[in-house]
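pasting for ref
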Amino acid sequence: MNDRELVERARAGDHDAFEQLVQQYERKVYITAHRLMGIDADAMDASQEVFIRVYRFLDTFNAESSFSTWLYRITINVCKDMLRRRAVRAELPLELEDEENGTFVNEISDSTYDPVEIYERAELRQVIRTGIDALPETYKQIILLRDIAGLSYEEIADTLQIEIGTVKSRLSRARERLRNYLLQSGNKPISFRSKG
């Protein structure tokens, strides 16, 4: 069953159809939310809020556009709202993320971890996050959707309702600004995926 059929059934009150939509998209929504939010717990909260909104507003979905585009728009808006609230509260994360070993509490409790490497990775991730956060909102959205969430140019254009040429030019400028930011902060520039 395709998205359109599942949406129609879910609108008609079929809870199994809605559950299938959730199962189909929950990982992608979580990954997108995590890249925007930066913290596991916040990404989980955002993902739950996304699907609550989808359920509440499914009747307003315009079937002329794709369900995934509508879903990514909701995800971006939920994350923006949560980030605004977080900025007001000025929260500090209690967890650090380690690419090899997952998320751990912000303390070193096991001597098998190399503190220098953990610190350097966490510091680089923070510099990249800060660099992305410093980008104008239009560039930030593009780089997160493309280089973090892995959406195609077409999906980004559809999600943000802009032309593909605009996506490519904004992405190029966003990457250049991020490279310059990393160089100015004493870090080597990162390489970006080039798949279309």
